[in-house]
Amino acid sequence: VIKIQGVRPDNVLFLIHEVFEGLVNESFFGVTYDIAFPCPDCLDARINEPWQFSSSLINRAIELKAPSIQCHRFFHVASV
């Protein structure tokens, strides 16, 4: 579990993703994957199976400058 906080957490997340992607590509040719992040409100509510936001959804929200995304399980709103 990695917890990233700060003004631009997406920068740190990008670096972690790049390192992880490089390791996977070097070791497991042809493997596809997506990284998922749990809904912060689901975690705060101690939900056993929190909704998972895919990194592709988060990246799209960042590209569109969307201020938030919505949890599909409990309709929580999480800031991007």
UniProtKB/TrEMBL annotation:
The residues covered by the C-terminal of Roc COR-B domain are 2-75
Q: Which UniProt keywords apply?
A: Repeat
Q: Which domain of life is it from?
A: Eukaryota
Can you name this protein?
C-terminal of Roc COR-B domain-containing protein
| Organism field | Rotaria magnacalcarata
